Amino acid sequence: MYDAMAPALPVTLRPATTERPWVRWALIGVAVGFLLIFLLMPLIIVFFEAFSRGVGYFLESITEKDALAAIRLTLIVAAISVPANLVFGVAAAWAIAKFEFKGKSFLITLIDLPFSVSPVTSGLIYVLIFGAQGWLGPTLQEHGIQIIFAVPGIVLATIFVTFPFVARELIPIMQEQGTRDEEAALSLGASGWRTFFKVTLPNIKWALLYGVLLCNARAMGEFGAVSVVSGKIRGQTNTMPLHVEILYNEYLGIAAFAVASLLALLAMVTLAAKTGLEWRYADEIAAQRKH
After folding, report:
1. Average of per-residue pLDDT across 100-110
2. Which terminus of the chain has a lower count of CB atoms within 10 Å, N or C?
3. What pTM was estimated for this model as a whole?
4. Contact criterion met (CB below 8 Å) for 82 and 215
5. Which residues, 6 or more positions from 274, have their beta carbon under 8 angstroms from its beta carbon?
């Protein structure tokens, strides 16, 4: 019979994990070693090789005519593809998160398509469509329009491989937020556009910036799809990754590493900004849940 006055038995708390300490340290060591060998060491080598002949040669390599043309084209492509994906990502996420319609799951599948298709394959598809022997190539040539081996083809290929990033960051947060704020604003007489700019956009601003950041990094570093559609015309259709390949194939390794260091620097800046956005985004989500 249970005695209410009996002293309570001590409760032994079991640790969340039952592995021995040496197992945990071994796993941590493997993870850290993997990062050092496959991430940090290549990054150090890139910068070491880039400056191995001094700062003068480094500056000469990145300010050379073809290098400047590659940098300029990379910035132009990113300046076109990122805003295009921003508009598409917001529209697609809004439609998927706020409305119910037939074909919704199919639209989500299409958004994920670039993740499952090789970039080289996607570039080849554009060649088959817009190339000289493609479906639309002859018609475009009759009107003096060139897509493949020109800037428009590079932009199209870049947009294809990067368009999931913004949408995929926005869809979960917009689904979690629901439609209550928008319905409240509309019931108070706000127009659709005013509701978007005053209610929806502030609620998704950090996720939107996060998606744009990742989209820009991928756009500037894309190689596979762009290499197929660009033709690798030096000084005209070479982006920075393609210019690095050409320099390395011509045995100009130090110059190749110099240009590659700019892409590595972009990756480091992207990582730092990504971390900052994650901290700010997590704080905002925690604050919203408290309310």
Report:
1. 88
2. N
3. 0.83
4. yes
5. 210, 213, 214
